[in-house]
Amino acid sequence: MIASVLPTISPGTLLAGGVTATAASLWLLLPRGQSGAAERTSRWLGTLLGLAALACFVATGHRLGGLGEEAVFLIVSLVAVISGAATVVTRSPVYSAIWFAMALAGVAGVLLVLGAQFLGVATIVVYAGAILVMFLFVLMLAAPAGLAPYDRVSNEPLLSAVAGAVLLGILSLSIGRLTAEPPLCCRMPSKTAAIAGNAAADPVPAASEAGVDLLIENHVARLGGELFGRHLLAVEVAGVLLLVALIGSIAIVSRAASADGTVAPARRAVP
Amino acid sequence: MQDIAPSTLLVLVPLLPLVAAILTVALGRTLGSRAHLPAIAGIAASAAVAITLLVGMAREVGVGGSGHDQPARPVEMVTTLWEWASVPDAQAAGVATATNLSIPVALRLDPLTSTLLVIITCVGLLVAVYSIGYMHGDPGYPRFFVLVSMFVFSMTMLVAASNFLLVYVFWEAVGACSYLLIGFWFTKPEAAKAAKKAFLVNRVGDFGLAVATFLLWMTYGTLNFHDTVLADGTTMPGILGVTRLADASGYVGGVVGTAICLLLLLAACGKSAQLPLHVWLPDAMEGPTPASALIHAATMVTAGIYLVARSAPLFVACPGALTMVSIVGATTALVAALIGTVQNDLKRVLAYSTISQLGYMFASLGTGTLLGFTAAIFHLVTHAFFKALLFLGAGSVMHSMGGVIDMRRFGGLRRIMPITAATFLIGSLALAGVAPFAGFFSKDEILASLHSRGWPDAHGEHHEAVPAGGHALTAGSFHLVSVTPDAGQLAGGGRGSQLDSLNHPSTWRLLFWMSLVTAGLTAFYTFRAVFMTFTGPTRVPEEAGRHSHGAAGSAAHESPPVMTIPLVILAVASAMSGWLLFNSHALATFLAATPSFTAPSVASTATPPAFHWDLAIQGSLAAAAGIVVAALGHLGKRSDGPQMERFLGPLETLFANRFYFDQIYAGLIVKPLEFVATLSAVIDRYLIDGTVDLVARLPFALGAVVRHLQSGLVQRYALAGVIGMLLIVLALVARAMG
Amino acid sequence: MTPAPLVLDGLVVGAILFSLGLVGILARRNLIVMFLCAELMLQGISVSLVAWSRHHGDWGGHVLVIFVLTVAACEAAVALVFVLQAFARTGRLDSAAWQSLRESNLPRTVDHELPAVDVLPLKFPKLTPAGVEPSVDQDALLEREHV
Q1: Which of B84, B396, B690, C82 is deepest in the core (most CB within 10 A)?
Q2: Cα–Cα distance, B442 to B14 (Å, whole number)
Q3: What is the pLDDT of residues A131-188, one digit of tens each?
Q4: Between A104, A135, A167, which is nearest C43 by CB?
Q5: pLDDT band at A270, cuts 50/70/90?
Q6: Average pLDDT over residues B292-298
Q7: pLDDT of residue A7 exceeding 70
Q8: From CA B227, how far away is CA B219, in angstroms rounded?
Q9: Ramachandran category for residue C146: left, alpha or beta (phi over 0 → left; psi -120 to 50 → alpha)
Q10: Rounded-to-integer distance, Cα A256 and Cα C88, Å
């Protein structure tokens, strides 16, 4: 839609504009120790620039034809991206966490649209339900009264914003090149051949169309089968990892507490 | 005593003083005022052993027999104690095959060594006994006796060593003892300065000896004096060994030989205070008077004489170098005598007299005849006696006068200290060369040896080396060379053959006349000192009573017996030794058996012993003239009155300033060196250190810039990492996109 | 050929989320916000993985995302403990509070241009203290906005 408004602008220009706008908007939005009118101005400017950048990226991305699946994707991805940006730039960590929850919702939507129903739900359940709540607990435990000074300044905002935008530009460039010709740097033997589409006789591209349907049909059962079949060992390792993390956190907490002297002296392992 | 081997006795001579020195070091504080006991006992025993050896050696040589007619056979006895160093397969340039450089600690005994051993130990003993009185109450009393013992040890080792490297070692050890004794009262700035000066000037001579040793090794492939039997049964001829001595072509002449000889002469000049290097000896009088008597009059300064005499065959092979020895000696004798005429310090008069007499000995050595060598040693012996006597007499005067040594401040002392006066007079007569006393005979022999070279026909001798060069040089040019011996020495290595042309009768005639004039001057300054000190109105400096009770001057007294008895003994020796030794020809016969003097080139110059009436008369006349002039000027007059020097005019300034030697050295050597040192210090401090500091500061400055990156903030580190990653990816993308 | 629908869009969304998270990690000083940003980066990765999985038509991306979830949970557990400890030591959640790694002769980096606090501290409603009823000005009571 938007791209149709700007038919004459080449994708390269769009991408460059998007990167620049992203950097500028992030820089403007990041807390830089400003206050009052200046802060408000830069916030507005940043928001506008950010929207413009989004528009650029949307335009460089896929030409969205109609409503349906793609429109849904556009909406949820916009939610995810805007909420993510807000997570990064919001001063108050509490609001930041809430924005992050919003971004999670958007990401879950994106995953759903992309055909990963289980993952979308899992993201909501695990992240928003468990991890994020943990974050909020910690925030409530640890946050000082009022807005801390370190929340109002950033570490090297300009350089960070530019670095992030450049990274985004490179990634977008690579992604945009996927359709035409893969850059040498990411040319990999078999997969790139499939992506580049220069092998008409290759059966994989045909499977790609079918693959989408393949993944949708009987989704969770087959994912479970895959997970506990081919990747059983990895699942076990992940379980061990979780256990280790659990025990590690408890150990660190108890040792630090005893070091503070608030708890009885160091405990010994029971033989 | 018969059942003790001579080698054991020979080892005992240096060993006993060494043990005494160690004992004194260990027990010095315990012994306190008896700290002289080990030294006296050690040196006395050593002297006894040395006399025993001398007697045994004399019996071996056959002195007193009818041995004058046949040529003397070499007598030597070598005791190798242990191998000090050994370098297998060392290659010397002058030797065809690789040899084993081995440095044995070997002691030798031959007539020359045994004579000097007796002199050293006997004079050392007398000086040590005298020091009991002189050094009494000094805080460094034990230290003094340690040093005296060490000195006797080093000196006996020096004359007994049978290896050039060993000689060098003890040459240095003697120099170190001398340094320590001159600087004995090191809290006195003059003494410390004089010690430093003596040491540094001696270094120049030591350098000559070191280089000479290297050259000897390169030339002869060995450093031993004696022949050594190698493991395979062959005999390695030593430098002064019997094998090489018998070989007519055993010694290298030419440029190399002359260089060796001139370097040895340089070493001898340093130790024996000859002309270019004589400046340290007068200043060395800052040390205790017994030390002056022992070291700077009787024994140590004779080390140079010993070295040249020992190396006689080497010198004889190089007529030019030999002549140079005489030129240096005679010039020194004359210059020192001239300086001595205007000194007012009693000890300095004696110091210059020492230099002058050593010059005599060198002049005699330089003749290269057997007569010359034996005459030099003869004069060395008699000089040791009468110069020790004079020094100890001067010390006695100084002791009594409360440390004052300026002759203008006292007079008529013969009434206060008769024994000292009498013995001093005897010593002066001996030094002046008055007829029956020791100096007369030895000086006569020296004059005779010089005369025989100047007028060979008169003595019926024939020297093969005399008409060597054939250059018709005038006497004037000889004179030029003779007054600049140091220049000749420095460049001598390169023109040994040109030096040979100096060996011409007219040179020797000039040297003879110089020596004769010196004899007169010697008599003059000696008796000037005698008259100034012991005659005239009795005057005593006020310092005299300071160290004892009583009013100023009234406490001046004769020295205690422990000081006067050595004076008497030495006086007897000074009076008698010359006549005894000359009349019996014992010393000459005895010394002729020294291996160094049995080389054909030396032994062939032997002459039948004779008393040269004409020379004796000339010498006596010169001495008498000197004494008469001294008597005219000083006999019975106040010593602080007008001096004879007022007739000298501008020359007096020259003499009193010692020919400006010190000033010349200061201007030519010290000042440029100081300038170079200052320059080096500046360069070192600012240029080199500055460069190093710059190199050190460069990383520091760089680090100061980069250090700010290490802020400790992890987010900055992460940012840097991300930027680096981006740069790499950008580079890859850029390459991929062409 | 053209890739499956929405694959490229998914990749772009993943890239954007990843980059945003990176900027947050690099710029924000609050430790908890930094970790939120790390989670954001993980979300970007997850989206990309799912997109690739859709492209290839296999389960690898899905499985990997599950593991990403697992690791994120572990990370959150451990990291939050660390954050709590850090807060216990310094009393703040500031990443710049930890500078011990810096050069020993460098001064500590401090915020020089801290803004004047123009935002009032957050006000939270408070209950009146229990006990004897305080004397209350009735007129004032009437003027209260909230009860």
Answers
A1: B396
A2: 28
A3: 888 888 888 877 666 677 788 888 888 999 999 999 998 888 888 766 544 434 344 4
A4: A104
A5: very low
A6: 76
A7: no
A8: 16
A9: beta
A10: 9
Residue with tokens 């998914």: C10
How far off is chain B from C132, nearest CA to CA, in Å?
53
CB-based contacts of B339, cutoff 8 Å, min separation 6: B352, B655, B658, B659
Cβ atoms B119, B298 nearer than 8 A: yes
Contacts with A184 from chain B: Cβ below 8 Å: 735-736
* The pairing of beta strand B99-109 with beta strand B77-90: antiparallel
Above 80 in pLDDT, residue B62? no
DSSP symbols for chain A = -HHHH--SS-HHHHHHHHHHHHHHHHHHHS--S--HHHHHHHHHHHHHHHHHHHHHHHHHS----SSHHHHHHHHHHHHHHHHHHHHHH-SSHHHHHHHHHHHHHHHHHHHHHTT-HHHHHHIIIIIIIIIHHHHHHHHHHHPPSS--GGGTS-SSHHHHHHHHHHHHHHHHHHHHHHHH---GGG--HHHHHHHHT--TT-SHHHHHHHHHHHHHTTHHHHHHHHHHHTTHHHHHHHHHHHHHHHHHHHHHHHHHHHHHTSSPSPPPPP-
Q: With 90 as the cut, is the pLDDT of residue A244 above it?
A: yes
Buried b (16+ CB within 10 A) or exposed e, B259-276: bbbbbbbbbbbbbbbbbb
Residue of C nearest to A222 (CA): C59
- What mean pLDDT value characterizes chain C? 81
Most confident of B249-253, B262-266, C114-118: B262-266
Contacts 24+ apart (CB under 8 A), B699-707: B707/C103, B707/C105, B707/C106
**CA-CA distance, B671 to B649, in Å (whole number)?**
30
CATH 1.10.287.3510 fits C7-91, yes or no: yes
pLDDT confidence tier of residue B95, bands split at 50, 70 and 90: low
**Residue A235 burial (CB count, 10 A):** 16
Give the model confidence (pLDDT) of B171-181 as tens digits.
999 999 999 99
What is the rounded CA–CA span in Å between residue A178 and residue A164? 21
Q: In chain A, which residue's Cα lies nearest the Cα of C40?
A: A84
Query: What residues in A contact B722, CB-CB < 8 Å?
Result: 163, 167
Residues of A in contact with C87 (CB under 8 A): 141-142
Q: Is the pLDDT of residue B579 over 90?
A: no
Count how many Cα atoms sit within 13 Å of the Cα of residue B429 in the half-sphere of its side chain: 18
Question: Does position C147 have pLDDT exceeding 60, yes or no?
Answer: no
**CA–CA separation, A42 and A158 (whole Å):** 14
Residue B478 clears pLDDT 50, i.e. is over it: no
Per-residue pLDDT band at A256 (split at 50, 70, 90): low
pLDDT cut 70: percent of chain B above it: 87
DSSP string, B225-277: SS-EE-TTS-EE--TTSHHHHH-TT-S--HHHHHHHHHHHHHHHHHHHT-GGG
The three-point CA angle C91-C94-C99 to 5° equals: 100
For residue C87, the distance in angstroms to the closest alpha carbon of chain A comes to 7
Predicted pLDDT at B486: 41
- Predicted confidence at residue B88, as pLDDT, reads 77
Given this model, what pLDDT does residue B492 score? 40
Residue pair B129/B564 in contact by the 8 Å Cβ criterion:
no
Q: Which pLDDT score, from 0 to 100, does residue A165 have?
A: 92
Give the chain C residue whose CA is nearest to the CA of A79. C13
Give A218→chain C minimum CA distance, Å.
13
C69: contact with A, CB 8 A cutoff: yes
Return the domain boundaries, chain C: 7-91
Q: φ and ψ at A109, to 5 degrees?
A: -60, -45
Answer whether B716 sits within 8 Å of A163, measured CB to CB.
Answer: no
